Amino acid sequence: MLKSLAERCRDRGMSFVAVVEYAPGEYGRTVALSGTQDFHMTMLEALARSSSIDGFAISVARYVREHKIPHNSIVLAHLGVPAEPAP
After folding, report:
1. What is the DSSP letter of 75?
2. How many domains does the chain have?
3. Within a domain: residue 42?
4. Which residues pair with 17 in a beta bridge?
């Protein structure tokens, strides 16, 4: 049902992210990104994909670095991501 809903959302230009814990420590996720999603949906998808805080932080750092997004994050600075990326 979630997959169908995700596909319907994507077909209408909306992004969809759902995470379900079906048993303690057992997760399933359904993701359909529109391709035009904003930073928040992209990070939510990265969180849904991550299995640890480290994995999530590394995903965020990689995305911010690759897309040259300015930030004021202490965590990203600690990971070596420049606050003001070079053009």
Report:
1. H
2. 2
3. no
4. 31
DSSP 23-74: ETTEEEEEEE--SS--HHHHHHHHHHH-SSHHHHHHHHHHHHHHTT-----H
| pLDDT tens digits along 49-83 | 898 999 999 999 999 999 999 999 999 999 999 99
At 78, which helix (H) or strand (E)? helix 74-78
- The Cα–Cα gap between 45 and 57 comes to 13
Looking at beta carbons, which pairs linking 68-72 to residues 24 or more positions away fall under 8 Å? 69/39
Q: Is the pTM of this model over 0.70?
A: yes
The continuous run of DSSP H or E covering 20 comes out as strand 16-23
66-41-19-54 Cα dihedral, nearest 10 degrees: 30
Q: Are residues 59 and 31 in the same domain?
A: no
Domain boundaries, position 54: 50-87
